[in-house]
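Recap quiz, item 2
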Amino acid sequence: MYYLYFIMKNLGRKKVRTTLTCLSIIIAFLLFGLLRSLGNAFDQGANLAGEDRLVTINKITLIQPLPYSYLAKVQALNSVAVATQANWFGGYYQEQKNQFPQFAIEAEDYFAMYDDLLSLPEDQMKAWKANRIGVVIGKALVDKYHWKIGDRIPLIGMFTQENGSTTWEFEVSGIYEAKTKGADTSTMLMHYSYFDEARQYGKGTLGWMIIKVKDKTQSEAVAREVDALFANSPAETKTSSEKDFTKSFAKQFADIGFITSIILGAVFFTMLLVSGNTMAQSFRERIPELAVLKTLGFSDTSVMWLVLGEAIFLSFLGGILGLLLAEVVVVGAAESMATVLPGLVMNTEVLIQGLLLVLVFGVITGAIPAIQGLRLQIVTALRRR
Amino acid sequence: MANNLVQIPIISWMNIRNIPQRLGTSSVAVFGVACVVGVFIGVLSMASGFQRTMMKGGADDVAIITRSGATSEMASGLGYAQAQEIANLPGVARSGDQPISSPELYVVVDVTKRTTNSSANVPMRGVLDAAFSVRKNLKIVEGRRFTPGTNELVVGRAIQRQFAQLNVGDKIKFGSTQWTVVGAFEAEGGLAESEIWCDAKVLQDVYRRGNSFQTIRVKLDGENGLEKLKEGLASNPTFNFSAELESNYLAAQSEPQAKFIKAIGWPIAILMAIGAIFGAINTMYTSVSTRTREIATLRAIGFGSLPVAISTLVESILLSVLGGLIGAVVVYILFNGYTVSTLNVASFSQVVFDFAVTQDLVIQGIWFAVIIGFIGGFFPAIRAANLPIATALREI
């Protein structure tokens, strides 16, 4: 308590300087919170990936379809609990800039597959199944386009219909929600049956298969088993765990983690220098005072703790404010970026790392002045004036 | 006033010569600004490099024809007969009696990226001979062109360097089909260098596309070739195609991603700049307070308060600009020309590009530094101007 009073007094002496140092620490940790959350958002898919789910795509590439008959063969495997399939629709609403993912799927199977992430009220599921052109949409889409149940939505699709038109008519039958924070709700889901009947080319094919294995410790073996089924056929497959699949997709953009760490490194180095310098400076000005303290009977170590305590206190003050500010900004940005970058959340991991960094930051900036304080010789220090 | 004008350079120069005495705090300010400007230029050089590569490949005398509403080449489609009809429309340039028209297929294949060691969507273009005459900047620089009817590939220089198994002579398997790389081409650093090319007919077979294509590129005939072509497309009621200059098309394809990078880069840079401003303010306050006696002496012998204030601002801006220059130079040395590849969301395929530290970016970065220096020096300058002479002289 005694020390805290001292520290507060010292910090309050040059208010402008203390405020400025504190503000730069706030900025450093605000950036930390934002950049780490951003980096995490790119990995979010992988974090939410089910351990017991596999994804099977055409070995050539994701965009090349597979024969529909493959699904039954996979479902027949003993090691497979359930399997379903999905297709990329690739449409947009009114203008090209309004692009969002749309999948053609099998309603019940798809929601059963992702029952850990998505939920759809039962009555809406029923209504959806009864409506050939029905679709369900996620909350992020509702927020962006203000669609509601019963709305008719024409989409310009990548696929031509049998009548030559590329405009597909849909009707909103339900709105699904995320069960887990960060799950993607920016996708529109439509019936595969409608999609496959109406499209001009590619009938009888599927985009990719999603497989739930019976025993998740056997995932790798099941993946090999599935690929072996179709080896040496015209359409060979590549099966991987959902986690690896999303990870390798994220990697296609670039090593986002690497880039954010470089920026963070630059930020911290700068801020460390700025506030470290200020601390050292304010310590230098107070050397005679510290000598007086020692003369009064304060021990070497307590003078050291006084200086170190001041640095750590300031670091925590700025750091916690910065992290709180980051949380506020991330929550705000998550709303508006839900369709571009779903999964933008600041999780506890980031928070804990942030707090640890706050401590390290304080210790580093305070260390040199603190050691100098420890070694301070009363006589020489007093003579310095 | 005239007096002030004389005094400003004198005091400023004196100030600047004294900087070595405050080397510690001054270098912190310089370093802080260097980091801010470095990050700013570094992040935005990604966006500018990406856009440069995307747009370099686009010619102004070539039109690309896609199905109306197709958001990318991959989403487009047209039949062989339609391709023939389009080629013979007015507005398409001819060589002899043949139209210069290149129907193409555009797909992606999984190839392993060297840096991440994981597979990525590499664009593969199925072309006929005409593709080489539509793109005048494209040159085979190693090996030879593929022989029509065989599973041979020619690859862009950029993609060849970033991805595995694409050297001339390499054999590579896409799915169950084996291909041989027989040549490499350059296209003045344009987008085409990120692609793999093969015979369109072979690709049609492998991908089971029948006798269909996805896009057509045509050489335009003169200034109003595009208009004539558009009229021709519109006059046929069975057509649902749109034509656009290749340069405009590629610019549009690069826009979303470049925007995204900028949307993330700017806020980071601005936040960092605010942090650096705090650092600069601290530095300048220190500078003013260590010079208290000097300033007071100057005021006592007749120097005005305005020149004193301005000299503080000059010092701040100068330190800041120095930092900005250092940041720009370091980023230029480290990143300019650094090659990476990313997934262009608009085309769903990899684009290989170099970070481009352009002149524009450097100028913007220096402006950034000036602003930081100005704000950082402003309040300390006011304090310097308002120093009470008598008490300041007594201070040690």
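Chain A has a mean pLDDT of 89.
The first helix of chain A runs from residue 2 to 13.
End of item.
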